[in-house]
Design brief:
- This protein is α/β, with parallel strands linked by helices.
- The protein has two domains: about 180 residues, FAD/NAD(P)-binding domain (3-Layer(bba) Sandwich), CATH 3.50.50; about 150 residues, D-Amino Acid Oxidase, subunit A, domain 2 (D-Amino Acid Oxidase, Chain A, domain 2), CATH 3.30.9.
- It is about 30% helix and about 30% strand.
- Helix 1 packs parallel to helix 7 and helix 3 crosses helix 10.
- The longest helix is centred in the middle third of the chain and has 14 residues.
- The chain binds flavin-adenine dinucleotide.
- Flavin-adenine dinucleotide binds next to helix 1, strand 3, helix 2, strand 14 and strand 20.
Length: about 375
């Protein structure tokens, strides 16, 4: 087999792989994406595509706010609106006893200097979401948040990356990464061998395997988040609604279907690349949906699925250079909330690889934090 030489090899053709490749190609690098199956095969194709700053971990807020600005200008970045609508994300307190959770969050955010999350009363909530059950008491809202169309987003990032010169090789499972005698890494796949001084590991639920091939031992868990889609109905609501203390993320797509998630967990066989819906668990999400929106009770569910993704111990992603080996970068472990971060994380990778550093706040995402925890344990 021939050896293809390039500046950067990206392992994984999900949205984070596409975004990193796009930003690097625009910064002048020759980039190849090696994808085991097809672009968008795993988490990026299974996602609920919520574009949420609301209730983010404080360490993620700076990059999440920048990503949100990018989503509001996504057409200028990838040439398509990606089905993004900024109708807001709302976290509802059903009962008075849930109010302190929202009040505490608002004070924490204000103390940190952020004002994008606001407490709204019941009247304002009912004005914004007239179809919600009247038993609710208040809510937290991020008005600039929203949701996008995941498949339209994948297609847009892919088109933009290819237009910038990125080579996307599908059906190319990476089987080994070896340091050759020069500055290059040799990346072996079932369909060819590649050489590059820089490798980005964006392999989602399988990222620990890729890290191990390069010599990094990064412990990872996994998530198998489940989703439900109903039949199409007339317009019911515009914002994305979640609820304190219950597993629910509830929105309506442009097509009229209701898209219901919220992090309920199915099961996954990661080595076999298979995920399974747990219908008993899924029923909890359906129950939360019908409690908040009683009118959806009679609707038919047309599809349900579970998607696989890597989870870290602190639920923060891994974004950064390997502390052990030159030229290896890790981008994974988004722990169920990486879709919103896609545009900005690609820009961060271009900073790190082209300029050698970034002005964005990414210290909390250093790969070494998980490797150090392993040593202590
Ligand atoms: C059901 C569900 C709902 C979600 N909802 C939201 C949401 O509302 N908002 C939000 O912000 N986030 C959400 N997320 C999370 C978000 O979708 C992910 O964080 C994001 O898509 C991760 O993208 P990725 O490119 O890192 O991973 P993936 O899309 O999983 O891409 C990794 C790729 O690596 C490839 N790969 C693996 N091993 C190899 C190998 N050896 N060789 C070559 N290629 C390999 C895989 O085939 C895969 O295509 C959700 C996730 C799921 C599953």
């Amino acid at each position: 087999m021939t050896m293809s030489k390039t500046d950067v090899v990206v392992i994984g053709g999900g949205l984070h792989g596409l975004s990193a490749a796009l930003h690097l190609a625009r910064a002048g690098k020759a980039v190849s994406i090696l994808e085991r199956s097809w672009v968008g095969r795993h988490a990026s194709g299974a996602t609920a595509a919520g574009v949420r700053t609301l209730n983010r971990h404080l360490a993620e807020v700076p990059i999440s706010l920048e990503a949100m600005d990018m989503w509001h200008n996504i057409e200028s970045i990838v040439g398509d609106h990606c089905g993004f609508h900024a109708h807001g994300q709302i976290n509802v307190a059903e009962f008075e006893s849930h109010l302190p959770v929202l009040q505490k969050r608002v004070s924490t955010m204000q103390a940190a200097g952020y004002d994008h999350e606001e407490l709204i009363d019941r009247d304002e909530l009912l004005r914004l979401v007239p179809t919600i059950s009247p038993h609710v008491t208040a809510a937290l809202i991020a008005r600039g948040d929203g949701a996008a169309d995941p498949h339209r987003t994948i297609a847009a990032f892919r088109r933009a990356a290819e237009a910038a010169g990125v080579a996307i090789i599908e059906g190319a499972r990476v089987t080994a990464i070896e340091r050759d005698r020069g500055d290059d890494w040799t990346i072996r796949t079932e369909v060819g061998t590649y050489a590059a001084p820089v490798v980005i590991n964006v392999a989602g639920a399988w990222a620990a395997d890729i890290a191990a091939m390069a010599g990094d031992d990064i412990p990872l868990g996994h998530k198998a988040s489940m989703m439900i889609v109903t039949e199409r109905i007339a317009p019911l609501l515009k914002p994305v609604v979640s609820v304190v203390g219950r597993p629910l993320s509830f929105k309506q797509s442009d097509q009229g279907t209701l898209v219901i998630g919220g992090g309920l967990q199915g099961k996954a066989d990661i080595p076999a690349q298979k995920s399974f819906v747990d219908f008993n668990e899924l029923a909890k999400g359906a129950r939360a949906a019908t409690d908040l929106f009683p009118c959806v009770g009679p609707l038919r569910i047309v599809r349900s699925w579970a998607g696989m993704e890597a989870k870290t111990e602190d639920y923060l992603p891994v974004i950064g250079v390997s502390p052990n080996v030159d030229g290896i970068y890790h981008v994974f472990g988004f722990s169920g909330h990486g879709f919103q971060l896609v545009p900005v994380v690609g820009a961060i990778m271009a900073d790190l690889i082209v300029r050698g550093s970034t002005g964005r706040k990414i210290e909390a995402f250093a790969p070494s934090r998980l490797m150090e925890q392993r040593h202590v344990a």
